[in-house]
Predict the 3D structure of the following.
Amino acid sequence: MWTRQLLKENAKVAFKRNYWLCVAVSAIAMFLMGGGFGVSSSNTSTQEVEDILNGQMSVQELIAQIPPGVLFALGLGIIIGLVVGLFMAIFVSNVAQVGCNRYFIENREHKTNVGQVFYGFQGGRYTSTVSIMFLQGLYIFLWSLLFWIPGIIKSYSYMMVPYIIAENSNLDRKRVFKISRKMMRGHKWEAFVLGLSFLGWNLLGALTGGILNIFYVNPYMHATYAEFYSAVKAEAIQKGIATREELPGVIAPDVEIPFV
């Protein structure tokens, strides 16, 4: 029987065995998933901010001082940013997540190459990967409209979706979601606690400006969740939730992906 401690110990072994490759894949995935961007700008003077904090100026009064043209440009910029962010999430970030999962699943068994992070973009998988990952996000969003709690529960129900299609991109969409739901029955709380166990590491990563995340925390987490998926998958196959033909493993890559 697996435990959280065992998953993390196995993850450390797999991660440290191919340390720099794991770091590279994690960093590429973070960049493609939007973690490598950051914009901070402000046209508000320090005195105006101080006045607002001291209660001498209301936010409405500050907005009234901004020319209409600037407000329009600001609003348009926000809308464009949201649209671009959504586009990137659907067509790039989600696919990169699948590729990252593929790499760390493989890394449990053998040394593989960094190019696996682009797994979802190649081999005719792109369309189905985009479609399934979009539906995963949509389902979670719609359930989240019911006071958030159902959305949180469903996020754990569909947690295995990007791992399942990372292992077998040919599975029928409905079958992918069905397997994920059944795999996670009885394991949602364990998944929650597993994520919570990295809270301290994430705080340390924040204190180092994200440097620790790049070189240790993120690849360590990816490796641990790959272990979690493998443990839950083995149990699912044993219970007949999925077959070995549906989840055949990734001992040997099914396509040749060049090292990048």
Q: What stands out?
A: The two ends are 38 Å apart (CA to CA). DSSP finds twelve helices and no strands in the chain. The first helix runs from residue 4 to 17.
